[in-house]
Structures
1.
Amino acid sequence: MALFIERGYDEVTVADIAERAGLTKRSFFNHYADKREVVFCGLDGFQAMVLDMLADADPGLGPLDAAVAALTRAGEVMTADYPEFTRARQDLIDSSPELRERDLMKTAAVTSALAAALADRGASPRAAAFAAQVAATVFTTAVAEWARQPELGFGATVQQALRDMRAVLAADHQPQPA
Amino acid sequence: MALFIERGYDEVTVADIAERAGLTKRSFFNHYADKREVVFCGLDGFQAMVLDMLADADPGLGPLDAAVAALTRAGEVMTADYPEFTRARQDLIDSSPELRERDLMKTAAVTSALAAALADRGASPRAAAFAAQVAATVFTTAVAEWARQPELGFGATVQQALRDMRAVLAADHQPQPA
């Protein structure tokens, strides 16, 4: 990650990364499928943490609040323990279409895992999928905003995004004139 | 598309497609970046149609209802004029991780264009992004369901999905006990 930030993502080769990490190119490819994977290396751990947090969530919460609570707690750990990494990763993703594509795929994988866990918790498959999708949108919006403006704190940034999301759905939900 | 359905997506090569279409491999690559693009070939037209439908939407509609209305009208055209293509395309995407990845990217591009158009229509950037994202989730859910069960009709399938989405957001929105 430090290399990407120093030189820009497009300028760094796999050979550069391997050299910095003291690896041969061959052992690099034992660890990562390609250069893009380096940016997403903590993500399997993040997904596991989200599922752990969900297992600990108040059983009385509906699927959306449970999903947001789990993502918020995992995000608070991530932003508190790795603030520079999280911010640098966000800047990198914003800077590269290739990384935005990979980020979409990775987010979709975490969203599917979260939907499956919400269904195990008792939500219908459709409610679980919708709740996971909305929670993921709220979360990624909050991470991007936190990276620009960390002062509010990550949890409050998520809550504001969730309120805004609910307002978008509720504002339209007026009885139609006959 | 017919070739993919006859033989399965993984079994068809670019040479097969070019031969069936009476093209050389070289002129195939003048038309499409790769094999995956063939499956998504009508999508630029679809996006243009969604934006046209949005321009025609009732100015009194909030961003979410306007986005859903535009996607519904474009989807009604697609499912009425190309029912077999739409169903076959859905089956293909469901059958291939490579196509699911491309579909995610294409959907993200249409969602961004829709968000930009909603912002031009007066929504805040955040409300526009949230409304476009939720509308896209509702729409893709409805297309998948319509492909399995067309009897209800596409418009009604979208409306049911939108009601379910609103229920997921509303169900959680109870005042918390003090």
2.
Amino acid sequence: MPNPMQDSIQEPALHIIGTVHSDILRIEDAPKFHAESDRIGTLEILPEYQEGLDGVTVGKTIVVLCWFHQADREVLRVHPRGDKSKGLRGVFATRSPMRPNPIAVSELKVLAVDGCRIEVSGLDILDGTPIVDIKNKPEKSS
Amino acid sequence: MPNPMQDSIQEPALHIIGTVHSDILRIEDAPKFHAESDRIGTLEILPEYQEGLDGVTVGKTIVVLCWFHQADREVLRVHPRGDKSKGLRGVFATRSPMRPNPIAVSELKVLAVDGCRIEVSGLDILDGTPIVDIKNKPEKSS
């Protein structure tokens, strides 16, 4: 049964729109962020959201939001990039997956689109990670 | 009472970490996106999350994720940027606030930090919008 309180402003509930398929199977194997990755993988979107993909085409860069379902949501300070020599810093000053709302933002290049499946490069995300949003990458204004 | 189902992988619940204070009071007044805005406003973070701000300092660019609580979550096709001459496009190929999970991604410049309050420029977000995350902006790798 859906709980109407989930859609309140206080604690809105996310809809999972799809899943990442990648060859990154362990957190230790994940690139620290997407600018360092040339890995290829597939975003599989649920059929009920396929209509929203109209206009996502080969060659575009998309901004993909994922939910790091394995991340610790209670942590507010981390060693940046896991480097303990750097001392602790607030999670909001880092890209750590640990944070109150573990939403990852990745820029990925579209290599192919086949129905609900988008092949992408630049992947830095664990296999099986839930996807919550895809956006067009904004162009820089001059 | 918290509902344990809210933290399931299927429908994770977001924690609101703060609120945007801006002079953008109506959707019609909002810039279409942040690259076009030089507006100044304040991010007010809840005290229980203040520790996570350690390292957010003047001059940095931060990536701010907000929850567009007024957006229609059922829409999967829109006229890009509201321009009806352009025809409909899937929401995932646009930056429309309407989408299954209406999370806005904005890059804002930090002008001042005072405890739980961060003054920023580049704001494109309605006054009163809930904040769900703040990240360091990744540097471009060469």
